[in-house]
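Before a computer can learn anything about folding, someone has to put a protein's shape into writing. The three-dimensional part falls to structure tokens, numbers that each stand for a local backbone shape. The protein below has been through that process, and both of its lines are reproduced in full.
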Amino acid sequence: CGRGFYKSSSQDLQCSRCPTHSFSDKEGSSRCDCEDGYYRAPSDPPYVACTRPPSAPQNLIFNINQTTVSLEWSPPADNGGRNDVTYRILCKRCSWEQGECVPCGSNIGYMPQQTGLEDNYVTVMDLLAHANYTFEVEAVNGVSDLSRSQRLFAAVSITTGQA
């Protein structure tokens, strides 16, 4: 096979053109490499296009009721070329002094769950009263964990009321 083509198996009768966002720059390639910033998930066959992580979720809004926060958002503008987008929530508790934040820990409840969310809403329960929190909502897909670029997320900071 020439440049820009590949043959993944010796049983293949003819060469295939490299899928979108991939290339082969030497003759006789058995696969095509992804362009910079694009990835192929381990479960993706060689004939599918290389894809990238999704952009951040949009229009993040919250509703707070004492020590429970409901978050809702819109899907990302760009799904990275994949249909397997889910969401994960990162909770940080922040001190009153600017900038000191630590992960919330395991005593916080998430309904329906913290990661692998297919819907675009979550309720976070059992927060401390009169505390500052930051929530990051990240859209992820099958190649997000392969990317070395900066995470893209929507964030909101809130202060809880009394318990």
Q: What stands out?
A: The radius of gyration is 21 Å. The CA atoms of residues 7 and 15 lie 5 Å apart. The mean pLDDT is 93.
